[in-house]
Amino acid sequence: MRVKYPSWNSLMPQSALPRLSGDCPRRCLHCWARALSLCAALGSVELHDLEKLGKETRFAPKESLFSEDENASKVYSLTQGVARLYRLLPDGRRHIVGFALPGDFLGTTLSDRYSFSADAITPIVACRFSKEGFSRFAEDKPNMLRRMNEFEVRELHLARNQMLLLSSRSAEQKVALFLIGWRDRLARLGEEPKTLPLPMKRRDIADFLGLTIETVSRTFTQLEREKVIINVPKGFRLLNLARAEALAWT
Amino acid sequence: MRVKYPSWNSLMPQSALPRLSGDCPRRCLHCWARALSLCAALGSVELHDLEKLGKETRFAPKESLFSEDENASKVYSLTQGVARLYRLLPDGRRHIVGFALPGDFLGTTLSDRYSFSADAITPIVACRFSKEGFSRFAEDKPNMLRRMNEFEVRELHLARNQMLLLSSRSAEQKVALFLIGWRDRLARLGEEPKTLPLPMKRRDIADFLGLTIETVSRTFTQLEREKVIINVPKGFRLLNLARAEALAWT
DNA sequence: CGCCTGGTTGACTAATGTCAAATTGGGTGG
DNA sequence: CCACCCAATTTGACATTAGTCAACCAGGCG
After folding, report:
1. Global pTM?
2. What is the pLDDT of residues B212-245, one digit of tens each?
3. Is B76 domain-assigned?
4. Which domain covers residue A183, as residue numbers?
5. Which nucleotides of C are covered by protein (CB under 7 A)?
6. Which of A96, A153, B179, B239 has CB atoms 3.0–4.6 Å from A207's, for a disulfide?
7. What DSSP string describes A170-237?
C-alpha cells in the first residue's frame, strides 16, 4: 500500500495556480501569497500599478535567484516554494542565512551588492521587480513603507532568534529549536501539517545551525530514539511536541 | 608616570554636551548624534516637531532602559553611551543580542512587548518618545519611514554578521571577528582610536559570542601571546590588524 | 545492475565547557 | 597615602561534546 506523504506541491500548490502571463490584469488580485506578502498593504489601484512593474518568474530547484557578488538590480517577492539564502566564506564553508518562504521579500540591501546569495530548493515562483522601479513605486507611499518596515522588523526578529539558537549549547537544543521554528513559520502560512516537511538537505540544515552534517544526522537519530520525532520521507513527524519544546529551552 | 587612556567620556563627550532641558528649542539642532540617528532624515521644521515629542533621559551604568517582559510603550534614540541588549533564557543563561551605540534606535517591536531588555553599560543619554506619539509622527512621513527602513536593514545586516560569527568554528575566530566588528562600528561614529575601548565586561562578551568567560579570557591572552593585540586598561590595542582580519576569516 | 548522491554510523581527536583556585585592579575608609 | 576588600579576570586540571575521517547503507536513475 502506498502512503501519501505531504509534499511541497500540496503545501504550496503549484498546480492550483494557473500559469498566468503578464498580460492578465488580474494576476495579483488572485495571488495565493498576497495576504502574506508586502502587497497586502496595497489597495486595488496601487496593486494594479505594482503589477505592471513586476514579472512572474520561475526557478527550478538549485537554480540561482541571485548571488552575493552580483549587482543588486532586482528584488523578489516569493509566492511559491522554498529558497535557501547563504553566504560563502573565504575558507570554503557556507553559512545559511535562512530559508525563504512564500510571502518573503528578497533583495533589500545596504549597498549595491546583494548581501547573500539565494537559490531555489523546491520549484519557485516569484514576482521580480527592478530594484529601482520598486523603490520609486514605494518611496512616496507611507502604507507600503510601513509594511516594508514591518517586514524588516519581522526578519530582524527571526535573525535574533537564530542568533540565540546558534549560541545555544548543545546540538540537540539547536536541532529542536530549528524544528520548532520551522514549524512555526509554516504555521504562519496557514499550514499545520501533522508531518513537518523538510525540503532542504542535511547539509543545508547543518550550515544553518553551525553544525556538521554528521552531528545533525546523529541528533536526528537520537531524537528519534527518544521518541520525540519520527522520520518520514522528506520530513519528520513531531511525536512529542512538549518534549521538543522542553529540549529547545533547557 | 600616568598615561592617559581613551575613555568613553572622551569618545562620547558627555561633558561637551550642555545638560539641556526640554524648554530649550534648539536642543535637537545641536545634538551630537543627529547625523547618526533617525533624525537626520528630518528638515528643521519636522525636527522641531519631533523635539516636542521627546524627552532627554539619562541612565547610570547598570540602570535599565526597558526590559523584555514590559509593555513596549517607549522608544529611544541613543545619543551618548553604550547599552547592552539581552535576553534571559529559561535556564538562567543570558544571551547578548547586541550593543547599542549613539545613533541607534531602540524599541521597535513586533508585538506589544519589547523583544529584549536593555541596560546601560556606560552613562547613557537618550531621547525618549512614547511609542504611540512617535508612530503617529512617522506614519505619514515617507522620508522618516525610509530612514527607519534603512536603519532596520542595517540592523539586519549586523544581525546576520553576528549569525555568521556565532556559527564560526573557533573561539579565536569569534573573538577576532568581534574586535573587528566593534572597531568598525566605532569607526562609523567617526572615532578611529589607536586603542579600542571595550566598556563591556568579559561576561558580556562571552554571552555575546556564545562562549564562556574563561574561553574569552584564554583567547584574549592567546591573541596577546601571538602579538595580535595588547591589553590596556579598559580595552585593547590592535597591534596587527592584518593578522586579526586573517584570523577572523580563516 | 551498478553508479551516484545523500544519509547514517563508528572510532578517534581536538576544542570548549566545567569546576576550582590564584591573581589583578579599582575603590573605600582609615 | 596606604591597607584592605570585593569584583573581575586569569589560569590550571579535567570532563564533555562536537568535529574529523572513514566506512557503510539506501534510494533513484541511467
Report:
1. 0.90
2. 999 999 999 999 999 999 988 888 998 888 888 8
3. yes
4. 168-249
5. 6-11, 15-20, 25-26
6. A96
7. -HHHHHHHHHHHHHHHHHHTT---SEEE--S-HHHHHHHHTS-HHHHHHHHHHHHHTTSEEEETTEEE
Are A101 and A117 in the same domain? yes
Q: Tell me: pLDDT of B8 over 80.
A: no
Q: Which grid coordinates belong to B50?
A: 519631533
Calculate helix-pair angle for A241-249, A171-188, nearest 10 degrees.
Answer: 120
Over residues B77-85, mean pLDDT? 96
Best of A116, A162, A166, A204 to mutate (most B CBs within 10 Å, chain B): A166
**At a CB cut-off of 8 Å and minimum separation 6, what does A215 contact?**
A171, A206
Nearest CA to CA, how far is A164 from chain B (Å)?
Answer: 7
Contacts of A155 in chain B (CB under 8 A): 152, 156
The answer to whether the beta carbons of residues B52 and B136 sit under 8 Å apart is: no
Pair (A142, A211) in one structural domain: no
Residue B141 or residue B19, greater confidence: B141
pLDDT at residue A62 greater than cutoff 90: yes
The model's confidence at residue B92, banded by pLDDT at 50, 70 and 90, is: confident
* B93 lies in the same domain as B122: yes
Same domain membership, residue A185 and residue A150: no
Judged by C1' against the alpha carbon of A210, the nearest nucleotide is D18
- Residue in B with minimal Cα distance to A114: B157
pLDDT digits (tens, 9 = 90+) for A176-201: 999 999 999 999 998 777 889 999 99
Is residue B9's pLDDT more than 80?
no
Does the pLDDT of residue A17 top 70, yes or no? Answer: no
The helix (H) or strand (E) run that includes residue A55 is: strand A55-59
Q: Cα–Cα distance between B8 and A2 in angstroms, integer?
A: 69
- Within a domain: A117: yes
Is residue B176 domain-shared with residue B240, that is, in the same domain? yes
d(CA B60, CA B81): 10
Q: The domain that contains A197 carries what CATH number?
A: 1.10.10.10
Verify that A17 and A70 share a domain, yes or no: yes
